[in-house]
UniProtKB/TrEMBL annotation:
Record's keyword annotation contains Disulfide bond: yes
Organism per entry: Trichonephila clavata (Joro spider)
Coiled-coil ranges from the UniProt annotation: none
Domain named Thyroglobulin type-1: residues: 60-122, 136-184
Cross-referenced Gene3D superfamilies: Thyroglobulin type-1
This protein's UniProt keywords: Disulfide bond
Top-rank taxon: Eukaryota
Name of the featured protein: Thyroglobulin type-1 domain-containing protein
InterPro entries: Thyroglobulin_1, Thyroglobulin_1_sf
Disulfide bonds: 155-162, 164-184
Amino acid sequence: MFKSRCLTFDSLKVGTAPRNSYIYTILISTFRRNSTEMFTIAAIFTFVFLCILPQDISAETTCQIHKRNAGGGGNALMQWDIQCDAQGNYQPLQCTRNTPKWCACYDKERMITSPSKSTKTCQCYLAKSVALLSEKPACEVPVCLKSGKYQKRQCCEQTRKCRCVNEITGETVVPDTANMNLSCP
């Protein structure tokens, strides 16, 4: 997304540019003139660089940097095939290029599981990460299989109740029952 960052002329005062800015350095070193000329030149530079020339103000995301640095080559044991979505966030399942494939689950910004040859999906791990980050009660934190699917039987020790869930979506298929040995289809 391209946006322009325009300053109002009220905010353009001589000497207000940060001392380490590129424009300030050019103005001071090149144009040792009176303050009226300096103001005019500063206003023109500011207008051209901040208003006329559109700038992509969104920096690279963590995923995009990771993808660029994962590059190819090298003798690394795990060469990751990093995938980012349209917004630059991590796709949930990230795997290595080599065989056997090792995979790890990511939320939008970081790895949430260790690399494993067993991980095939991230639905449960993502829900678990959200629940833990939002400090939900222990009974609301899903139990995941190594594959990343939901464990079909989700139990809560505090309430001594269990329920059955869909192993892919985590949706309840058999409601809470006071049976810690509940058998799930």
